[in-house]
Design a protein that fits this description.
Pfam families: APH. The protein is an alpha+beta fold. The chain contains ten helices and ten strands. A hairpin with a 6-residue loop joins strand 4 and strand 5. The longest helix is centred in the middle third of the chain and has 21 residues.
Length: about 350
């Protein structure tokens, strides 16, 4: 089970929103142990929020922590408040009930309006971030998929999840809105990469836009926690071994759990590599699910769900490109993810399963 400090649900001091407020007095109160000195170094790109590596001096405190804070642009925080609230509530309410490997949370709090939050997380170094552009080896993909089973398995088809109002769910109305947003986003995506997106990939994206509303509400009999953006850039890999750590929980929602597996493989591996290893990776994921108490779910059912769930790749890729901050690396990443996931949909005949 994931390790979460019990104090994250009863913080002794309120959240702060800038690194200068992470001073020794605040940290002493937040951690419940004396901190005499702290230094902060910015890490990551900070499109949704900001992250800092804290070096601590004190008694009984970790030597390093990662602090997550809201975006520097105050005007954007109200729009992002739902994502902030989701991540904080994940660490407070969900993490203690699942077995996915995550950084230990030492403190979490969020303001009533959701615009100010603080997370103090374990520094996972020397583990390093995956590279979405470079892709990964099949062994890394399998380790990441088995870690996913620790998220999905313990709360598989758990009806109490439906009572969590902060956890996003997609019904028919939400699916229609998704379709209304996705179709024009596809055309924008295609226009953004003239001559760089193969005609067959553009056609696949348009086919997905045609079917995405039906897909979003299909197969409701299997549901659970979905990370929503389980890709290599959101995974930390150790120098040796397979203890993959998952980060960035702002997109957590309810849905078909195999969406995460399909997104991982479909966007993170080149088509030939994916085709060569996907049955083995899904089999390893399925076997791990069974260890968490999932029953009446065969491997063949699991693999068909994986094929069906491949739509997650183009969906998240296109929307992320449409609404994210444009960068050269981002453009190359989204184009690569679109190529890989479109090829997956064609190879697995995914749209025939909707």
């Amino acid at each position: 089970m994931s390790v979460v400090d019990p104090s994250v649900n009863s913080p002794s001091v309120p959240a702060v929103d800038t690194p200068d407020l992470l001073d020794p007095a605040w940290l002493t109160a937040a951690l419940g142990a004396p901190v005499t000195a702290v230094s902060a170094q910015r890490v990551g790109s900070g499109q949704i929020g900001t992250c800092y590596r804290l070096e601590l001096t004190g008694e009984g405190v970790p030597p390093r922590l990662i602090a997550k804070l809201p975006a520097e642009n105050i005007a954007s925080r109200a729009f992002l408040s739902s994502a902030y609230r989701t991540e904080v509530r994940f660490y407070q309410d969900i993490a203690p009930t699942v077995a996915v490997r995550i950084p230990r949370c030492h403190y979490s709090d969020i303001s009533a309006d959701g615009t100010t939050f603080t997370l103090l997380l374990e520094d996972a170094a020397p583990s390093v971030q995956g590279d979405q552009l470079a892709g990964c080896l099949p062994g890394h993909a399998e380790a990441a998929a088995r870690n996913l089973a620790g998220l999905h398995g313990p709360r598989w088809c758990d009806p109490t999840l439906l009572d969590l109002g902060w956890l996003g769910q997609v019904g028919q109305e939400e699916a229609e809105l998704l379709g209304d947003a996705f179709a024009p986003a596809v055309e924008t995506f295609i226009d953004r990469f003239p001559g760089r997106l193969a005609p067959e990939d553009a056609e696949t994206l348009r086919d997905v836009a045609r079917d995405v509303v039906s897909w979003a509400v299909a197969r409701p009999e299997r549901f659970g926690l979905v990370h929503g953006d389980y890709r290599l850039d959101n995974l930390l890999f150790p120098p040796s071994g397979d203890d993959v750590t998952a980060v960035d929980w702002q997109t957590l929602s309810l849905g078909h759990p195999l969406r995460d597996v399909a997104f991982l493989l479909g966007t993170g591996l080149d088509p030939a590599d994916r085709a060569a290893c996907e049955r083995d990776v899904v089999a390893a994921y399925h076997a791990e699910l069974l260890t968490h108490g999932v029953t009446d779910y065969s491997f063949e059912e699991c693999f068909e769900d994986y094929r069906f769930a491949a739509v997650q790749g183009p969906l998240i890729t296109v929307l992320g490109c449409a609404y994210g901050t444009q960068t050269d690396r981002g453009d190359e990443m989204f184009l690569t993810m679109a190529r890989r996931s479109s090829a997956m949909i064609r190879a697995l005949d995914s749209l025939s399963l909707i």
